[in-house]
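Weekly puzzle thread! Below is a chain. First person to post its structure in token form gets bragging rights.
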Amino acid sequence: MIKRIGDIVLIQLSDIDSNIYLVGDTVIDCGTGFNFTRLRDIFNALKRNMNDVKQIINTHCHFDHVGGNGYFLNAKVAIHEDDAKVLEKGDGELSNADFFDGKLHPRKPERILKEGDKLNPDKLDLEVIHTPGHSPGSICLYDKKRKILFTGDTLFSDGVGRTDIAGGDPKGLESSLQRLLKINV
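Winning reply:
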């Protein structure tokens, strides 16, 4: 499914893939990578080339969000410092790749994110909000001016991210959700 939200394109490939957001030449989360042909076909339908993506922002290190990073050959990967080692090592346990019967290929992120960092894909001014709980390095991305919040797996329209998996922390997630309640979206 493809849905346009202004100049943001939401791509949903399958039930096991994360949402993929295309913002200019930036992708926020990349899914598992199991559905390459479908993703390529969607990019073609959008008259876009996957090789033109310059930046990937991973909201956390879980396989359903980072497994497809390798399909964007020219993109630089950005991820929070607390999840960066999982990508660097290709850690199947902490990325939950094992749960998906997948394999996470090691990849060194080009940008290590911290609380308060700024990212500027296309017309957005995104601030990194560190929201640990689902994973140690979970982040949300907030555009204060446009009141847009990308929440990864910290928060869903009908629930919150799991904490019963490797790296999960229920108290951390509760604290993160309390922070998000104060944001105007």
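Puzzle host: Confirmed. Bonus trivia for everyone else. The CA atoms of residues 90 and 105 lie 5 Å apart.
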